[in-house]
Amino acid sequence: MKEDLKQSIIKTIESIHDRIGETVIIKDWICTNGRTYDRHQTRYGKIILKIDEFSVRMSGAIATIGNKNQYIEFKTDCIQYIEKNDKALVIEINLSNTVWRRIEISEHHIS
Q1: Are strands 100-107 and 53-57 parallel, antiparallel or unpaired?
Q2: Which residues span the domain enclosing 87?
Q3: Residue 74 and residue 62 in contact, taking contact as beta carbons nearer than 8 Å
Q4: For 1-111, where are the alpha helices, taking DSSP H only?
Q5: How many structural domains comprise the chain?
């Protein structure tokens, strides 16, 4: 892993801690056909979650975002792309040769 990507991952992952207490939308894609996210080869999930807890386990480098009722986990040592902007935090993880996971965390706006 390149050092600049590693530093970006650390900085961005640490920023999730600042969102404790917020309600967010987490969109989660898992594609078995590379980074295409083709609808025929991709599984999709979406949850609305109030973040009460955030941690990264040393064993397995697993990040956990959640509360006592629900949570989502993802591997941090396989991150290949990470970007944080005004609208969302986007993380892409290469789980194996052709299996990619994309997680998007954004604010939940009550309409």
Answers
A1: unpaired
A2: 3-107
A3: yes
A4: 3-16
A5: 1
Q: Which residue type does 75 have? A: K
End-to-end CA distance of the chain: 41
Distance between CA 111 and CA 99 in Å, rounded?
35
CATH code for the domain of 63? 2.70.180.10
Residue 34 β-bridge partners: none
DSSP state of 76: S
Asked if 79 and 6 touch (Cβ cutoff 8 Å), the reply is no
Q: Is the dihedral of CA 88, 9, 18, 44 positive or negative?
A: positive
pLDDT in tens, 22-73: 999 999 999 999 999 999 999 999 999 999 999 999 888 899 999 999 999 9
| pLDDT tens string 94-108 | 999 999 999 999 998
pLDDT band at 10 (very low <50, low <70, confident <90, very high): confident
